[in-house]
Structure prediction request, 222 residues.
Amino acid sequence: MKKQTWRPTLIGLILPLACVTAPSQVPPDISGNYDVAGTNEDGAAYQGQLQVLKHGSVYQFRWLAGNQYDGVGIINGNTIAVAYTDGADGTGCGVVSYRTLANGTLDGVWGMWGVNQSGTERAVRASGSPMDGSYNVNGTNPNGGAYKVTLSIAPQGTGYEFQWSNNSSGFGVTHGNTISVGFGGSKCAWVAYEIKPGGVLDGIWGSYGTSSTGTERAVKRR
Prediction:
């Protein structure tokens, strides 16, 4: 499954990043065991199993599909964004899920592997055009501490490069009006799933700056 060509500049957000106010509705509980089928970035097919475990306001993802992979996921509306790595230790990998508001503001939530609570972030565009400009950011860490940074977003490959003023960087893809951003260094990659009825997670995945993406469909076992 999911063999990545890791790049040393990959997803590098390591500090307070990320994300916005959670939607008012109660998000679905997606925990459980899934059968997965997907395609690698080169088009080769794979199959495997996925276990999703709820930890506080985030989810742990454990795949067994050729190799073992472990990640952290955060729900935002009907999308769940996941950052993952090879093996069982995802320390340092994190993910941000933004929703684009009508005025162009990015409102989101973020989480890191091994931390059971999420943070929040709101990015207001200061210059440039949507998804290609500079933003002023206010957010909270999982421990409740506030932070302020600036953010630069630029198109790159099939997605967007995110660069925060705290020397953190990430790579994101759009899924409807949601933007999923992975961060944490060259060992981390990302998945963006749409949560569908009947226990189905339908997603795309890839690595930082990739010119192609893979697909994955996970169906919950009954």
Notes: Residues 32-220 form one domain. DSSP finds no helices and 16 strands in the chain. The longest strand covers residues 45-55. The chain has one domain: 32-220.
